[in-house]
Amino acid sequence: MKFTKMQGCGNDYVYVNCLREKVDNPPELAIAVSDRHFGIGSDGLILIKASDKADFMMDMYNADGSSSAMCGNGIRCVAKYVYDYGLTKEKNISIETGAGIKYLKLAVEDGRVAEVTVDMGHPITRPALIPVKGEEERIIAKPIKVGGEEYKVTCVSMGNPHAVVFVEDTKKVEIEKTGPLFEHHEWFPERTNTEFIHVVDRNNIDMRVWERGSGETLACGTGACASVYACILNGLTEDEVKVKLLGGELIVRYDREKDLIFMTGPAVTVFDGELL
Ligand SMILES: N[C@@H](CCC[C@H](N)C(=O)O)C(=O)O
């Protein structure tokens, strides 16, 4: 089976072109390829498929084999993949996901994809749709007890669940301890991704993320979008913010008129390979 390893801000996945390859058991393959010692090494697996509703379809799996409806860094790489490997000549590409069709724009310089902008759609705050337990209309800075500590959490879905908490210093977060406690907290029936955010100023934030199903990763695109929207809901930033992650930077812009979030960032091919 031929594959390509790609990364966006260090959030790395193994990509398989399912227009050519057949994958019988995606969860099993995701666990195998993600292993950093016995596999290829990645945060998960992304299958590129045909779609009857959009130009292509993205089917994504975390390192533990669980699937997610959306992956922000992954979808930028899918757009780069289909362009670079000649599956399309278009620079405006639509991709079907579990969270609806997303629209992407490639910035190509000297024949190379320099960066990709994604219309990430509407941020979702209704608790039942995230999903997170709660009777209120939106969960903004709500106290939550995690591992004996109290945090204030803001919950947003970008097609997948995010719990955003604000901290003084992201470097001091004991993420290996706290991340799993949030992920499996009883408030989140489908588990959650958790973002730890330090607001630097009204246009810049630092972020660390504990991803559902993959643990700490160097970046999370949906997490960056959810975090910027959480900042806006808490009155902490303007509508355009640079998000500094462990593996790079993303620009996230909230279009207030259309209630849409746009994310711009890199998409990089690491290597092609063949699984034996
Ligand atoms: N890294 C991704 C998100 C991947 C899915 C997530 N772990 C989940 O289970 O929802 C991104 O860039 O958005």
Give a description of the structure:
With 276 residues, the chain is of the alpha+beta class. The protein has 2 domains: 2-122 and 265-274, Diaminopimelate Epimerase, Chain A, domain 1, CATH 3.10.310.10; 127-258, Roll (Diaminopimelate Epimerase, Chain A, domain 1). It is 16% helix and 44% strand. It is built from 4 helices and 18 strands. The chain has helices spanning 26-34, 72-84, 175-183, 221-233; strands spanning 2-8, 11-17, 44-49, 56-62, 67-68, 92-97, 100-109, 112-121, 142-146, 149-157, 161-166, 193-201, 204-211, 215-217, 240-245, 248-255, 260-265, 268-274. The chain has an 18-stranded mixed beta sheet that branches. The longest helix has 13 residues, at 72-84. It starts with a strand and ends with a strand. 45% of the residues are buried. The model has no long low-confidence stretch (mean pLDDT 98). Ligand LBFN2T5F is lined by residues 11, 62, 68, 71-74, 160, 193, 211-214, 217, 220-223. The site of the ligand N[C@@H](CCC[C@H](N)C(=O)O)C(=O)O has 18 residues, from α2 and α4. GO terms for molecular function: diaminopimelate epimerase activity. This is Diaminopimelate epimerase. The record marks 162, 211 as: Could be important to modulate the pK values of the two catalytic cysteine residues. Belongs to the diaminopimelate epimerase family. Pathway: Amino-acid biosynthesis; L-lysine biosynthesis via DAP pathway; DL-2,6-diaminopimelate from LL-2,6-diaminopimelate: step 1/1.
